[in-house]
Specification:
Distance between the termini: 46 Å
Largest sheet: 5 strands, antiparallel
Order of helices and strands: EEHEEEHHHH
Shape: globular
Number of helices: 5
Strand order of the largest sheet: 2-1-3-4-5
Structural class: alpha+beta
Number of strands: 5
Number of domains: 2
Helix content: 25-40%
Length: about 180
């Protein structure tokens, strides 16, 4: 039994996405060759923004599991049989392929590129949690109609923020918020 206190139980029926982790031989337990899971917790609501939910889900699963996997695949969860599920992302420590549904989402592309450039992610490489208050970063987040002429300008600014040390999670939240608010 785990000392964590919280045990994630995936909701097979109501999750929008699912994943399959194909384990390296040294991480297999008996005849278990792969691990499957779902993005939504059984007793919690799923986020309304499905794109942000997918990006967060990928980041969480890949960061915690890629070091013990040969490949991790993400799919839609159509609930009509796995053969009908659309493959959304295929990622290894050295390559990735994003399906058409999400191949234009910059935070996902940036994350996959970092994984590829680093040759994967080990557990000790997990991003450190940055303790900060909202007011620490307020001056970086610009709001207002017309600040960004198009999605590319917003993506460029968000990359600049991350490269300047603003926490990745805050930048992703800002990206999705502005994108939705101003229909970019």
């Amino acid at each position: 039994m785990s000392n964590r206190g919280f045990k994630f139980v995936g909701d097979r029926e109501l999750s929008t996405y699912r994943h399959a982790i194909i384990l390296k031989p040294e991480y297999r337990i008996g005849n278990v060759l792969d691990l499957e899971g779902y993005n939504k917790h059984k007793n919690h609501a799923e986020p309304v923004d499905k794109v942000k939910a997918f990006v967060d889900y990928v980041s969480r699963i890949v960061t915690g599991n890629l070091y013990k996997a040969t490949v991790i695949e993400f799919y839609t969860n159509s609930r009509t049989g796995k053969v009908n599920d659309e493959r959304l992302l295929y990622i290894t420590s050295g390559s990735y392929e994003i399906g058409p549904r999400f191949n234009h989402i910059q935070p996902l592309i940036d994350f996959c590129e970092r994984v590829k450039a680093n040759g994967g992610i080990k557990p000790e490489d997990k991003p450190k949690k940055v303790v900060s208050t909202k007011t620490d970063w307020d001056s970086y987040f610009k709001y207002g109609k017309g600040i960004y002429k198009n999605l590319q300008e917003l993506q460029t600014y968000c990359r600049l923020l991350v490269n300047s040390g603003v926490p990745q999670g805050r930048v992703e939240g800002y990206f999705f918020d502005v994108k939705a608010k101003y229909d970019l």
